Amino acid sequence: MIQSVKVKNLTLSKENVRKSNRDAGIDTLAANIAAQGLLQNLIVTPLKKAGTFTVKAGGRRLRALQLLIEQGTLPADHTVPVLVLSDDDNSIEASLAENFQRVPMNPADECTAFNFLIQKGMTADDVAKRQGVTTRFVEQRVRLAELAPCVFEALAAGEITLGVAQAYAVTTDVDRQARVFTQMNSSYYGDNPDNIRRAILNGTVKANDAKARFVGRDAYVAAGGRIEGDLFATEGDENWIDVDLIETLAAKKLEAAAAELAQAEGLAFVTPIAATHVPYDVANQLHEFHAPTRALTEEENARVEALSAENDALLDQLEQELPDGSTEAEAANARIEAIERELETIDDARHEIDPAVKAQVGTFVYIGGDGEPRVHTGLFSEKPVVDPNAPPKASGGAAGDGDAGDSDQGPKLSATLIDELATQRRQILVAHLASDPSMALDLTIFLMAQNVVFEQSHIPNHSTLKSGAVAFPIVAFRDEGSMASQTIDDQRQRLDTSWAGHKTMTERFDAFRALDDEARGAWVAYSIARTLEPTLNVAEGYRSNGFHDHLGRLLDIQVENWWRPTAENFFGRVKKGIMLDALEEIGGPILRGRYKDAKKGDLAGTCASLCNGQGIVEAEIREKATAWLPEAMRFDAVEKPARTALRSSFVDDDSGTDPDEDEDTYTDVDAETDAGDDIDDDGSDNDQENGQHLSEAA
Predict the structure, then answer these.
(1) CB of 671 within 8 A of CB of 650?
(2) How far apart are CA 537 and CA 675, in angstroms?
């Protein structure tokens, strides 16, 4: 039953389920009640004294009303509506439901509501007073309501957090918000507010950026592009402001190059990619096509043999008869060069693709790191390529890859007999292969290379030898844009895949063996290198491997030339103390003291700029900064002796103790998380944690 009761006749029940933080936000609630009135009645039960009640649900509203009466905002005999329950059990359940069964309002709905009031003519100050919030809070919500539609819709759908939305709101340029939102949606660190703010505020491109170099300064300026110069910097450090214009000019120039290439080569398509790499997901949606190399004709074979013999004879003459610098020697060298060109022409003819086949395949053109257009060496098709000139398949004959052949060939054998005979034949094959190191080496390289080429397809090769690419420890992590990943992609494109286009494994193996030593050696290096697992120069744990550091030193790897710490990949994800230590290592205590009071996000940007050569500092400090690396990224670790879990029972123990009691068992548990788990100034934790726990029994 609803009835009106004076506030002075209400007391708070001890059975109210809210016991903690009872006074939190009472001032705000009181201001809201003063402006709007009591929008929700209290739930009470009667006391023994007639006309008095105890409040079971609505204790905060009661205290807000009492505060307003104390302040003189409401009269002392102010009455409020209450719902009177007679059953204490029901009242406790009602209190629990009112405090527990409540869903926080979606921030997007809050923004829309505040913006509606402003549009109706109210000032931010008026709205703040009536809603019991600060004027700044209202202004912030109104700013969020004016976000780019794609960002605001993501907030309303719960796809991004309030902190992420606030990061986009640092600028009122909705076009820039939308562009950065599109970029960040496909970025691994795209939900980090610090990264978003930097992308929004640093919406410029350096003149030495690959895309800027591809467009060209003159073309950019002629199209109305604006440039911010630095009197103390080189031209390469100029900031090109109009990013959208750069994207448009690059896309148009690349599209023209793609169309010209497709027409000149007779390809079905050439897709322009306005980036420094072809995204893995884009290429992976297509079928990779490998054109088989045809065998030499009899005429070509004869010509190759004749040219090779002539070449050898000329080399002998140069070494034994013809003096250096003589007319005869120059003529011999000129003839050798002509022979090499003719041999290359003959070899190129073996790689020619039938026009009918070429019309079904295509490739990509993208921007190289040097700013030059680059054509992907691989060929791709939307569906498996059909060769119209291929001979029809025979009804019987030899089996192809994974093909059981004609089921009617030979007598029927039991499964057990098949396994036994196969084992016997395997033993005979192994005995012979083990005695032919050259053949075994060719087979090793071939099997690993086939794993690379046909990684997405299951082709049975009946061998346990594998060289599969190691999986990244973070699912969906992409590193395609880094210098190392681009180099690996270039190495993959340079591998000779002419052998891979043949239909059967037999044909592929014979074609692979026909490659020269350099081509096969490149397959060895690539196949083995991609099996290496991720490791770091850390004291211990699963990621520690001193042998990898030894390999890095043997290869003379200068990590600073390949990787630089940025706010996204390092500084924005570690504790502030680590950043200050880095500054001290670079510029001493003075440089550390200069930034000791900076906020974490600003400090991360400063460290990143400094380590990437963009800070305005002394030449000596700049040199140290551009070479600085986190200890974990250096190849400095030394391999530790292997630790065995069990000791040999045959080792004498001079101590007289039981060897079992002195036995060492080592178990390393490495919880891999970002060190930067401290809380930002806004109270949010913006660092991402991997939380992957790995154990190693060494």
Answers:
(1) no
(2) 15
Nearest-angstrom CA–CA distance, 584 and 603: 13
For residues 198 and 40, what is the distance between their CA atoms, to the nearest angstrom?
44
- How far apart are alpha carbons 91 and 634 in whole angstroms? 66
Contacts of 607 (CB under 8 A, 6+ apart): 565, 567, 571, 579, 582, 583
Can you tell me whether residue 696 is helix, strand or coil?
A: strand
Q: How far apart are CA 333 and CA 139, in angstroms?
A: 81
Give the Cβ contact number of residue 140 at 10 Å: 18
Beta strand pairing call for 53-57 and 42-46:
antiparallel
452-485: pLDDT as tens digits: 888 766 677 788 887 888 887 876 676 767 888 8
CB 84 within 8 A of CB 53: yes
DSSP H or E segment with residue 55: strand 53-57
Cα angle value 161/167/171 (rounded, 5°) = 140
The position carrying tokens 């120039």 is: 253
CA distance 256 to 221: 20
Distances (CA, A) of 439 to 320, 435, 453, 509, 519: 36, 9, 21, 11, 16
Radius of gyration of the chain (CA): 37
Query: Tens digits of per-residue pLDDT, 648-690?
Result: 434 444 444 443 333 333 333 333 334 333 434 333 343 333 3
Contacts with 218 (C-beta within 8 Å, 6 or more apart), sequence order: none
The amino acid present at 545, given as its one-letter code, is N
Q: How many CB atoms lie within 10 A of CB 422?
A: 11
- pTM beyond 0.90: no
Q: How many CA atoms lie within 13 A of 337 on its CB side?
A: 6
Q: pLDDT digits over 534-567, tens only?
A: 888 887 777 888 889 999 998 989 999 889 998 8
345 burial class (0-12, 13-18, 19+ CB within 10 angstroms)? exposed
Cα–Cα dist 695/542, whole Å: 7
Task: Record the tokens describing residue 539, joined without a space.
Answer: 């004291």
For the chain, the farthest-separated pair of C-alpha atoms sits apart, in whole angstroms, at 132
By DSSP bridging, strand 53-57 and strand 10-12 are parallel
Number of helices (H) and strands (E), helices first, in the chain?
26, 15
Query: Residue 168 burial (CB < 10 Å; 0-12/13-18/19+)?
Result: buried
